UniProtKB/TrEMBL annotation:
This is nitrate reductase (cytochrome). Catalytic subunit of the periplasmic nitrate reductase complex NapAB. Receives electrons from NapB and catalyzes the reduction of nitrate to nitrite. It comes from Mucilaginibacter limnophilus. It catalyses: 2 Fe(II)-[cytochrome] + nitrate + 2 H(+) = 2 Fe(III)-[cytochrome] + nitrite + H2O. One of its GO terms (biological process) is nitrate assimilation. One of its GO terms (cellular component) is membrane. The keyword Transport applies. The chain holds residues 1 to 708 of 1170 of the full protein.
Amino acid sequence: MQSPGKHNESYTSTCCYCGVGCGVIVKKEKNGTISVAGNKDYPVNKGMLCSKGLNLHYTVNDKSDRLLYPQMRYNKNMPMKRVNWDEALERTAAVFKTFIEKYGPDSVAFYASGQCLTEEYYVVNKLMKGFIGSNNIDTNSRLCMSSAVAAYKMSLGEDSVPVCYDDIELADCFYVTGANPAWCHPILWRRVEAHKAANPNVKIIVVDPRATDTCSVADLHLRVNPGTDITLNHAIGRLLIENGDIDIDFIRNHAEGFAQYSELVFKRTLTEAALICGVSEHDIRLAAKYIGEAKGFISMWTMGLNQSSVGVNKNLSLINLNLITGHIGKPGSGPLSLTGQPNAMGGREVGGLANLLPAHRDLKNSLHREEVQKFWNSKPINPQPGLTATEMFEALEGGRLKAIWIMCTNPLTSLPNVRLAEQALKKAKFVVVQEISSKPETLAYADVILPAAAWAEKEGTMTNSERRISYLNKVIDPPGEALPDAEIICRFAQKMGYRGFDYKNAAEIYAEHVKLTAKTNIDATGVSYELLKEQQSVQWPFKKRLRPAGTPRLFADKQFYTPHGKAIIHAVPDALNSEQPDDNYPFILTTGRVRDQWHTMSKTGKVSKLNQHTKQSFIEINPHDAILLQLNEGDVVVVKSRRGEVRLKTNITSSVKQGVVFIPMHWGKILGNDLHRVNNLTNDALDPISKEPDFKYCAVSVQKYEKP
Ligand code: SF4
């Protein structure tokens, strides 16, 4: 067995792409490069890696785009010049102090990332909320998981994924909605596929307006009209009730809200629901039958539900299906939200969102604020939630926010209505960019550039989608003067004159974080670097004496984290408030991912093998629409929305429905040209609770491009 930690120049780590969190063995070669293989002993992936994971080492070995030393300029018209760390951080501290003094602490903000390690998240959250005195710390996780976070909290009383991956092999029905795990969470999906191959009675239902690779193993593909998820979930709920396929005992003793829910779902007939969703009554009945007959039922979802202006309601309507059937807290059953980023979960554990405090404490709760303030020995924590991801850029644009520190993320590709974000950075008084690569467009707007260490160049921890905490070894030194992100933040905090940031190493930061989890639902006390090196990973909540590997499955005792201990079934309306097509913008645009790229391609885009799969961005359009627009395969089209435009080659395919077009989200500006950047088009309308943007639905026009 491969020993965890260092072993003959081989080190254990965790893949830094999606939230599946596969274990890898990183080998340090004699020439200083690294190679990567799947960790056969790791419970998540048992040695498997997908195309992205298999090519991880290329992104680290290729240093051609790396930032090597801090840079700074005193004036936006001046060129950047190389400076040392003290100069860069002292100037940044001086500017931050000036703004805080003149305009108050809410005039500055940190925008971080679900790719940050837990320790990095912890220190930046502590710095901002405890010492600067503002809650303006948010991350790009807001763009992917915040609707699921809010829905878990509202229905189960806590942001807690109830299941573990080992439940996959115990389930006999999967309801996969708003997700394409075959491409976006491949190793997890391989486990579902293998389970079905070994057990042909296992049923897979896929709900998606597109025919994706995930559909290829589905028993039933419900090809819904975009945005109709709640109507579909309610229709299935109604049929489950009608068919008597609900768990009366669970509903009576362990849930609230069923009467209102039942009344609501019976308001719409199956015929109406089928019409709205664009699927047949027969298929909805079949989905309800598969779920009703299941002994183990897992609902699985990701951005298709989360990234919506009604994302929380979509999530709640899905979790309801697990609650009314009692499929939660038992083997092979429960809701399983798939995380897009490797450590979005760890970020939430330390409270790294504008509305959270450490260990999932609530910012609005005065006792929670006091607990954290005392622990940090800091100033009183501001009760007002800070600016969320898109709100930060609006506030910059409007002048309310003066300075932003962008850490480990690429907002000028990933934010919706991204040209507004570009305007915002142009207007910003002061921009700090903490990055590994010299490529992201944000660097053009920076006043200070801070070079960061990459994956395998620093140690720390992450938590995957099943609450599994893992330790990532440092294997090689970062190039040039690059530093681990946590060290950069701690050095800056000290330049600001704050106490409590003089950690000797990352282990000390982690130890402080776990102390704060004591007596909370995510209790990780007892977890340490030593333990993680010995055991590779544990799942929170962790009680060393009782459960040495942590807690794989939550709610086995049917005690939920709500005030009365009961799960809450929310009767949510099925209204959609997205921007609707009209004569000027007659198509619905939906966005998503391709198999071999990850997020804004700042890492995967460096790997020529991965670029082979999809060489450039494209637009998928249905053959009927192509005929009406007189388009041939490969024609270039101009796609416009109320916010901007792009120009792309057409891919004519019946995998999208008539009236719907699809564009991948990965491509940003290429050599100053933003004509492939889909977020020129997307809408920055937000879910009112989660503040997650409506990436999956906006109105666009499509026209053949005619050369001027
Ligand atoms: Fe990495 Fe996700 Fe692929 Fe696993 S499935 S190797 S975590 S990208």
